Amino acid sequence: MKASAFFLEEDLIVQESADTSPCHYQESLIESGVTQLNTCEETPEIPDDNICQEEDLIVQESADISPCHYQASVDESGVTQLNTSEETPIIPDDNICQEEDLMVQESADTSPCHCQASAKETGPNTSQDVGSVKELSEEDAKDLKEESGTTTCQPKISRRKRVEPPTNEGNNTISLAEKYPEPGRYFKLGEQIGEDPNGVIYNGWHRSRRMEVAIVIIQDQEKQKGIQKEVQVLEMVSGHENIVDFYGAYYHQAPRTPSLPEGLWIATEFITGATLQDLIGTRKTLGERWISYICKQITTGLFHLQKKNVIHHDIKPGNILITSLGEVKIGEFGFATFGRKSSSTSGTITYSAPEVLANFGNNKLEYDHKADIWSLGIAAIEMAEGDLSFSKLPQQKLIEKITRGPTPGLTPWGKWSDEFHFFISECLQRDPSKRPSARHLLTHPFIGEIRGERGVQKNIAQQLHRGMKH
Q: What's domain 274-469's superfamily in CATH?
């Protein structure tokens, strides 16, 4: 707003001063995206002279600084939203009142950031599937709220100098550099220790946690795009004792530190041990107590995924990690999906449930997390017998056997308990509606009543050490 004449300046100041008030205000966002302001109006003090006082400008400008700490949040489109806090501007020395009028209009654009926790709105991570939380049962929702509720300070963006992130369509490197932080300040990169289908694996040191981690560095841009969904799943499910811990995704640009490899860095728990597949290879059979212990740990992890509305799609011995202490952890979430239902055909056919394989072709039949329970049952047979006799069939015959043939089971000449046979038959119910959920399976006598569980864990760790040593 501009004054029409200098002699009317005092009157205009009176009118304009109602736009500012020492009263705090709150902002609420409606669905249209428009910010509504609730302004507490008070009778302003009229200046004693006609000269724009520098002190008044300083007071009006001071409302532009918000105590809310900077926080970046990533929406579903992958665009980073920035909250910019402007410093108090330098006040010009001239006495022209046009500058003051402009500042009065701008001064109401910021407010203290009020934080409110809501499991429905925030979730454990910025990538949480909001819609999935609403579909939980009341009891599971209560468990989920206890496990994942966090407090997130949602920043407000000042209208004074709104910073719009640059668009980077078609330029994946720049968008990832904006989306993920620079890893150098968080990690000290160690030696290369292996490779996986996505990239090179290094060990590293987490500076703030003061612990060793595993870092996969992905340089291929197509693989960088593909793994971002897995990153979102890991953010949601990490933090459980039977899930491999996730320590974040980062992006390094070579010009900043040429000595570090450029690419997307995925930091996870560093596990000194082996896969369940490796453990099976050290013995002809793992024995019933060992199988009982391992199945219980996997089922506990699957129950956690069930509460998070995540379907793994690839539960098999090669994706189950056994630590040097005998702990059991589910890894490899590359095929995982969000939501209570899925129609994906991803996974390993040998361990896939009939309802999953029914979608090969033009079918789009939805199924739920019980598909992972079938995979657990097949893995239990492999732990008992060392291998799966039907796994070497051609793909089409294998699919037909799983979908139409006799239900797999333990060989009749094996010396297995009735509880173990019952456990296998429950996991491998062809009709998923009759198959137990992970929650109900935890009460099964085969895994619910393990004697000497600590001793079993210790024995597995010792066997793993001997087997890997040789």
A: Transferase(Phosphotransferase) domain 1 (1.10.510.10)
CATH superfamily, region 174-269: Phosphorylase Kinase; domain 1 (3.30.200.20)
Rounded CA separation 336/313 (Å): 6
What does the pLDDT look like over 168-210, one tens digit per residue? 444 444 578 889 999 999 999 999 999 988 899 999 999 999 9
Max CA distance (Å), the chain: 107
Round to whole Å and give the CA distance between 451 and 431. 32
Separation of alpha carbons 355 and 402, rounded Å = 10
- Print burial letters for 416-426: b (CB count within 10 Å at least 16), e (below 16): beebbeebbeb
The domain locations on the chain are 6-148, 174-269, 274-469
Catalytic residues: 314
- Residue 232 in 3-state DSSP? helix
Strand-strand pairing, 211-218 and 263-269:
antiparallel
Is residue 428 a contact partner of residue 407, using CB atoms and an 8 Å limit? yes
End-to-end CA distance of the chain: 82
Spell out the SS3 assignment of 156-225: CCCCCCCCCCCCCCCCHHHHHHHHCCCHHHCEEEEEEEEECCCCEEEEEEECCCCEEEEEEEECCHHHHH
- Per-residue model confidence as pLDDT tens digits over 414-437: 789 999 999 999 999 999 999 999
The first and second tokens of residue 225, run together, are 């795009």
